[in-house]
Design a protein that fits this description.
Radius of gyration: 22 Å
Distance between the termini: 50 Å
Strand content: 15-25%
Number of strands: 14
Bound molecules: pyridoxal-5'-phosphate
Largest sheet: 8 strands, mixed
CATH architecture of the largest domain: 3-Layer(aba) Sandwich
Number of helices: 13
Structural class: alpha/beta
Strand order of the largest sheet: 2-9-8-7-6-3-4-5
CATH class of the largest domain: Alpha Beta
Length: 415
Amino acid sequence: MFARRAGWDLGPDDLAETVARRRRAGLPVVDLTDSNPTRCGFRTAAARLATVLADVARDPRCAVYEPDPRGDRAAREAVAAHHAGQGGAVCAESVVLTAGTSEGYAHLFRMLTDPGDRVLVPTPSYPLFTLLAGLEGVEAVPYPLRLRGGHWRIDLEALEATAVPPVRAVLLVHPNNPTGSLVSSRETEALRRLCRDRGLALVSDEVFASHRRPSAPADAPHTLLPAEGAAADGPLTFVLSGASKLLGLPQLKVGWIIAGGPAQLRDEALARLEVIADTYLSVSVPAQLALPALLASQVELGREIATRVDDNRERVERAVAHAQNVRLLDAEGGWCAILRVLAGARGTAPDEDALARALRDDSGVLVQPGWLFDLEPHDEDGAPVAHLVLSMLPEPSVVEAGLGRVLEAITASSR
Ligand SMILES: Cc1ncc(COP(=O)(O)O)c(C=O)c1O
């Protein structure tokens, strides 16, 4: 009855059931996996959204439906103005609005690939790639990021070896989730050359790009969208972003695709994206009308998130400084912290799943095991390690409450 692409194992969800059971029993749940800003107490974003939507409700344009397939022009101009500040060549004509970044991926796969084609995705990275690609009949093939001297770097040799037909596009996340690593200027050059020479599209997910940490290399580009003079001899390039991470407003359900690259190819791509967007017209009029005023508050909303993430990271740094066999991996941006658990006296690292399950069942603390993001169970020298990924978005009291338990559980598992 069902398509192979929908052949998922839909058995009971152990995690959801355990959490629901704990909540029913009145037991605490400390969620260190939460990266949903609407659950993490960001009051400025909620207040700003309420004000802007009240204005939108009174706007006469809200009462009519005359959709522009690429999105309302004022909204696209606001998006272009935001990204122009990052250094890429962008104007309203090169922007297409979507109902979130995930839909942006779907539109790009529909335009760039046929069933059975492949796209290259970084690993470790965002676990949803496989699903997003699979739903469009496309295979997501990993290319490795390797931790060298404390920085995650693209294994360019491995990438080049994989970038052969039927590969149609190279995806990257800048900064990456969960490693927080930025693509360096050298990597950017290499990626642009590879994609141009092999006729591949370059897709840069920049949902976390508005904030970088002090450890970020100064020469890492702010965007992979080519600057004015560099577009003509580069590859067809797409940048994805959206309100979900940039403004901390996932409930607005607005994202966008920005196209760049050689003018003729870019314009052909935009004309095709317009047909795809016109087929769904998925972004609501109120959301489009709200976008310019919300983007005007981006600096303020972004700062609230960045401050939270940085403060929580410092909390983790302080706590881990006293722990024997735990390291906090460096991050150049993003919302995650990766704890690396080193091997104990017996020479083995704890089992990530067992650790996460013990935390959940014994104290209601939720963390993500590293394998979920394809973090490998060994370090650069091959020694066994385990990884736990923590969201740095929850309120400080939640992080404080969970962190001690996490370190206790790690200590117990290493005995
Ligand atoms: C790297 C990355 N890209 C895209 C998304 C999805 O964004 P949106 O909510 O706009 O669909 C996420 C969500 O966590 C993400 O981590």
